[in-house]
Specification:
By secondary structure, the chain is an alpha/beta fold. The chain is 42% helix and 28% strand. It contains five helices and five strands, in the order βββαβααβαα. The longest helix is centred in the last third of the chain and has 15 residues. The chain starts with a strand and ends in a 5-residue tail after the last helix.
Length: 119
């Protein structure tokens, strides 16, 4: 099963939007995209990259955000014969994991803290 979510990255007077496609079993990020708008095209682009690189999952889970319920996104999943799940519980867990990593409590950030900094 794969999942996707969008997060906001504050910059100056606005935001960038990051979508990540994640393999639920390994928690590996399969593809990601940044956008300066909430237009759903960047989500479809990330999905296309993940499908091209890693094949197709049986199930794809998202929240019910407008980008993920759009005809373009759901149509792409349907054309690849991927079952669509929009179960909020999975997405809450994914969000908690992402927040933990961002706050320095996750496995990824632990490894990054140990790396020497370039001076």
């Amino acid at each position: 099963m794969w999942a996707a979510d969008i997060t906001y990255i504050p910059i100056g007077r606005g935001f960038l939007y990051l979508v990540a496609i994640i393999d639920w079993a390994s928690r590996a990020v399969l593809a990601w995209r940044l956008s300066n708008t909430m237009d759903g095209a960047f989500c479809v682009d990330a999905l296309d990259e993940a499908l091209a690189r890693f094949g197709r999952p049986e199930i794809f889970n998202t929240d019910q955000g407008s980008q993920f319920i759009s005809a373009a996104f759901t149509g792409r999943l349907a054309s690849a014969d991927i079952r669509i799940s929009m179960d909020g519980r999975w997405m809450q867990r994914l969000h908690r994991t992402a927040v933990a990593v961002a706050e320095g409590r996750g496995r990824l950030s632990e490894g990054l803290r140990r790396r020497p900094r370039c001076t």
